[in-house]
Amino acid sequence: MFDLPVLQARNPIIRWSYFVDEWDQIQAALQQHIELTVIAMAIGIVVSSALAGVALRYAWSLPPITAFSSFLYTIPSVALFGLLVPYTGLSRTTAVIPLASYTLLVLVTSIVDGFRAVPAEVRDAADGMGLTPRQRVLQVELPLALPYIVTGLRIATVSTVGLVTVAAIIGQGGLGRLILDGLRRAFWTPMTIGASLSIVLALLLDAATYGAGRVAMPWARRGRAS
Amino acid sequence: MTEQPAIRLDQVSKRFPGSEVEAVRSLSLDIPRGSIVALIGPSGCGKTTTLRMINRLIEPTGGRIEIEGVDVTSRAATELRRGIGYVIQQVGLFPHRTIAQNIATVPKTLGWDRARVDARVEELAELVGLEAEMLDRYPDELSGGQQQRVGVARALAADPPVLLMDEPFGAVDPIVRGRLQDELLALQTRVHKTIVLVTHDIDEAVKVADRIALLNVGGILEQYASADELLRTPANAFVEEFVGEDRGMKRLTLRLVSDLIVTDGAVVDAEADRSAVPPVLRAANSDWFGLTQDGRFLGWVSRQDYEAQPSTALADLPRALPAAQVTPDSTLRRAMEVIMTSDTSTAVVDDGGRFGGVVTLEQIRAGLAAPEGS
Ligand SMILES: Nc1ncnc2c1ncn2[C@@H]1O[C@H](COP(=O)(O)OP(=O)(O)O)[C@@H](O)[C@H]1O
Ligand SMILES: [Mg+2]
Fold first, then answer.
1. Domain map of chain B by residue range?
2. Which of A48, A157, B201, B300 has the fewest CB atoms within 10 Å distance of its CB?
3. Which amino acid residue places its CA nearest to atom 20 of ligand 1?
4. C-alpha angle A145-B158-B9 in degrees, rounded to nearest 5
5. pLDDT tens per residue across span A127-174
6. Based on the structure, what is the number of domains in chain A?
7. pLDDT tens readout for residues B63-98
8. What fold does the segment set B7-252 form as a domain?
């Protein structure tokens, strides 16, 4: 698709003046990257919660739901963009659909596993004390499923941040644009910056998710009585 | 016309979907207010199913269950359950909530204000014997016995008149179990709940229950009686086998020394003249006599020592140590143990040290022959 010029050895890995000259570009790319990540994750969470809800309610539906999510996961992103462009154009929607789809497998699995790990006697006690099904889910089962869900969110977030770089090929910006730009111009600096920022962003969001999980689960921090 | 029972099961049946046979078949049972009724029977006989039909965790397929004369199905299940305490063997504490939050579950659901909830939590911690510093801990940080106390406190939180307990002490070791049973009995004297307790342990049922309902597979009621009656007159071979060969011995744990008619026995006052001893020994046909002083029991002296030391005053004769004695509220089992393991007679001595007679194997046998309370 691209005619990649041979990178020259003298080309420095990073040219610091680029930061100053192209600061606006870098900032815009970073912001787009974060937006795409957040939107894809938000949609992924909503859709996978619904799918997990169905799977938990009707046990028979878990295999087809998992199969469907796995199937989506196997489609190469570039191919999926190509499939969608005729319908949704070179739009943000076209970028977000695959990104959100890729989160489903890990998120559905982690939510289902989390809820299934809630001890039966805890559920029984909740019912026996007269909590409504809704109270039981929100006050008891969801908090107890959180360790699994947080792990799923961390995996999905890190992989989404990496995948968002591909959205640049359909003109949706993000840090991928800097990388593509560097490739086209045989210029190391934007590539280095784009890739590094993507890695840093993934690590930061991962740490933030982990931290939020710790804050949300104070009971998991305490030592166990022997 | 008898008093209305707190809980009435009227021809209650349960057939689980996909099952050929009924797990519970036409079970009728009246549970008197303020009493502890044990549901007991072999594994799979329908104890848990019966218990869970009372708070509608399981819906019966036939019959009717009333609490205080009101059909349980006339109220929303969640509302009904908030008015019924529920304790299970695995406790089922919420691991993500502190002990205080666990106990506060039902009051919070009922919308009590914070001050009232906090006050109630403290009161319950005291009631079940939990130190206040436990309240801020998480369930994982407590021992099994402490967790079970929290389970009971949580069930009692909104002061429900009825408490359902499914093998509540089945998961703790025998020493802790015994202590928790004692605590339940002590608690019951303060709260006077109507308690339905599922157990498969006949000793537990005998110890804590006012009445025992013995079920057979299929939820068939074989006998519903007081522990003493169940042990004394089993209704059929199944009951007899279930309660065990040692049912006579078990009854010993139910009866107290104070239930017996005890005799005065061979006793003389320590200030009395030595000549008072021979007639007393002869009358009681005994080789030991007790010494008392102002009605207080001092100990046992042997005929041998009395005869070997002809010039010693009674008060100065050697006494057998430790003195064989029981209190009026000792069980007959305890009395029997003391009688069997001492050479002397066995005195009944109250907490104030006053002598109340001697207890013998013959009296225990006579006491067991009669039904309780006669
Ligand atoms: N949810 C259920 N579905 C089908 N059968 C059940 C269910 N719960 C209990 N049973 C059956 O009902 C019978 C009584 O069970 P249960 O009340 O748990 O016995 P127990 O508590 O006396 O050991 C058993 O045969 C058990 O297999
Ligand atoms: Mg059971």
1. 7-252, 257-369
2. B201
3. B44
4. 95
5. 999 999 999 999 999 999 999 999 999 999 999 999 999 989 898 889
6. 1
7. 999 999 999 999 999 999 999 999 999 999 999 999
8. Rossmann fold (3.40.50)
pLDDT confidence of residue B2? 62
Tell me: pLDDT of A73 over 80.
yes
Chain A residue numbers touching B77 (CB-CB < 8 A): 130
In a domain, A186, yes or no: yes
Superfamily of domain B257-369 in the CATH hierarchy: CBS-domain (3.10.580.10)
Among B150, B148, B143, residue whose Cα is nearest residue B100: B150
Ion ligand 2: residues, Cβ under 5 Å: B 48
ipTM of the prediction = 0.84
Q: What CATH number corresponds to the domain at position A94?
A: 1.10.3720.10
pLDDT at A225 over 50: no
Residue A112: give the domain boundaries: 24-221
| Ligand in closest contact with the CA of B21 | 1
SS (H, E, C) chain A: CCCCCCCCCCCCCCCCHHHHHCHHHHHHHHHHHHHHHHHHHHHHHHHHHHHHHHHHHCHHHHHHHHHHHHHHHHCCHHHHHHHHHHHHCCCHHHHHHHHHHHHHHHHHHHHHHHHHCCCHHHHHHHHHCCCCHHHHHHHHHHHHHHHHHHHHHHHHHHHHHHHHHHHHHHCCCCHHHHHHHHHHHCCHHHHHHHHHHHHHHHHHHHHHHHHHHHHHCHHHHCCCCC
**Distance from the CA of B57 to the center of ligand 1, in angstroms?**
13
Structure confidence at residue B110 (pLDDT)? 96
* Position B1 confidence tier, pLDDT thresholds 50, 70, 90: very low
Q: How confident is the model at residue B221 (pLDDT cuts 50, 70, 90)?
A: very high
Set of chain A residues whose Cβ sits within 8 Å of the Cβ of B109:
129-131, 135
What is the average pLDDT across B132-158? 95
Nearest to A222 among B109, B141, B155 (CB): B141
